[in-house]
Amino acid sequence: MDQLSAMRVFVRVVETGNFTRAAATLGMPKTTVTNLVQSLEARLKTTLLNRTTRRVIVTTDGALYYERAIQILSELDELDNSLSNSQSQPSGRLRVEMAGAFADLIVIPALCDFYQRYPQIKLDIGVGDRLVDYVAENVDCALRGGTPTDQTLIARKVGEMSMKACAAPFYIEKYGVPGEPEDLARDHVAVGYLMAQSGRVLDLAFTHGARRAEVIPNYILSVNDARSYVNAAIGGLGIAVAPGFMINGALERGALIEVLPGWTVEPVPLYIVYPQRRHLSNKVRVFVDWLAKLMQTLPADRV
């Protein structure tokens, strides 16, 4: 038995929660994964995992072995990379998640610069605002708006999005202009932004000097994608509070009109998040650094 391989397999089973997902992320047959874990248990003369039909449960011995194993594997990975990185360009496949608006308007237009620097990295970009299981789906990092709440992720703030309230001319002709934020819950309708984390529509918060107004918007449509959210506002389906980089073009051509100009919407922070893995590989490190620099060098009206 290759004990090092068995340790890596055992760690992945613990991180993914079952043998099937572990086998899929490792690119191994499930029987190989099962046999390696069983061989490891036989070598150690203890049970590391209790199996049920739906999941595996880590035993006390298994939890202790896992904590030590990830330290050992991390040190080995660090040693290997410290030698190989000095001799070669970062390479391999990188799985990244981000909202479609970030991908279309910010990241993809700049990717030629990234590929000129790191031509041996292949990017798989998942587009959307959905919840992600970083370990089970083997996602390396994500660009997200809003303060992360998942304590298992490392979060690096890379900027802020300025927000503006706006509506289509058709909407204003039909409903008029709101005089204050509370009108969005009474006499007006807003496009609802459905948050993946909570499954509920995002509340809207405005400030005017010392006054603060938090509104649960009245809506006839809610969506969970930022591009659809802005398009719904352009279509006259309600007032939207959206990032400036997404709506500045529509404001300039008259497809949207800014409303509540005396009120300020708190900027939304932008974070790059990634799992607290044993070792941050060089390909992830260079992409995170490149993306952070990209976000910080954009003009203020682009973000």
TrEMBL record:
PROSITE patterns, sorted: HTH_LYSR
Sorted alphabetically, the keyword list is: DNA-binding, Transcription, Transcription regulation
GO molecular function, a single term: sequence-specific DNA binding
- Where the record annotates domain HTH lysR-type, the positions are 1-59
Q: Which GO terms describe its biological process?
A: DNA-templated transcription
**One Pfam family linked to the record:** LysR_substrate
Q: Name the job this protein performs.
A: Transcriptional regulator of the ttuABCDE tartrate utilization operon.
Q: Which family does it belong to?
A: Belongs to the LysR transcriptional regulatory family.
Protein's name in the database: HTH-type transcriptional regulator TtuA
Question: What organism does the record attribute this protein to?
Answer: Rhizobium quercicola
